[in-house]
């Protein structure tokens, strides 16, 4: 990405990150009118492999994030209905800064991409398949990153908080898949 700075020189900074082609689910998440994007600094990242439509299952983790004062990126199969409406209202009122996006890919590919995001951000994919229910999720299950940029078309995770060794292992696995 290109960012404006306050210095007189141009600087090049190579950043570890990931971009995928899914944008925000509501324009109400936009907080930078100039770039028409949602920018989240030092956010928590919730990764979920199902649709979220019921706010009750999301409330415990949402309240914990609100208390922490940090923003939240939600990546799920979909966020709709009452859950999406509540996130929009909380964002507009400034209670908690949120951006919600659909998970990239479909089926097994989606699971693999969510797992890659979990490795990159140091989080866990909240999935009932592995015995994790959304209503029982805590802050320790969430990933984090230095910055997230969400436009209407794509999402960029910049400098995820995952362990370097885990990320390198993931990169090796992806390279091996490319060679096959």
Automatic annotation (TrEMBL):
Cross-referenced InterPro entries: Cpn60/GroEL, Cpn60/GroEL/TCP-1, GroEL-like_apical_dom_sf, TCP-1-like_intermed_sf
Record bears the keyword Chaperone: yes
Keywords tagged on the record: Chaperone
GO terms of biological process kind: protein refolding
Gene Ontology MF terms in the entry: ATP binding; ATP-dependent protein folding chaperone
Similarity remark: Belongs to the chaperonin (HSP60) family.
Name under which the protein is recorded: Chaperonin GroL
UniProt source species: mine drainage metagenome
Phylogenetic lineage: unclassified sequences, metagenomes, ecological metagenomes
């Amino acid at each position: 990405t290109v960012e404006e700075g306050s210095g007189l020189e141009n600087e090049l900074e190579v950043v570890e990150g990931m971009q995928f082609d899914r944008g925000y689910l509501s324009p109400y998440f936009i907080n930078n009118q100039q770039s028409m994007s949602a920018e989240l600094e030092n956010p928590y990242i919730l990764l979920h492999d199902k649709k979220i439509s019921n706010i009750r299952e999301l409330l415990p983790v949402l309240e914990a994030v609100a208390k922490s004062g940090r923003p939240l990126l939600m990546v799920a199969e979909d966020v709709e209905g009452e859950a999406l409406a509540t996130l929009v209202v909380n964002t507009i009122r400034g209670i908690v800064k949120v951006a919600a996006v659909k998970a990239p890919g479909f089926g097994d590919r989606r699971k693999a991409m969510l797992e890659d995001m979990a490795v990159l951000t140091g989080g866990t994919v909240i999935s009932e398949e592995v015995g994790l229910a959304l209503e029982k999720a805590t802050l320790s299950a969430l990933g984090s990153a230095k910055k997230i940029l969400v436009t209407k078309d794509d999402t960029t995770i910049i400098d995820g908080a995952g362990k370097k060794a885990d990320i390198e292992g993931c990169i090796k696995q992806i390279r091996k898949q490319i060679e096959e």
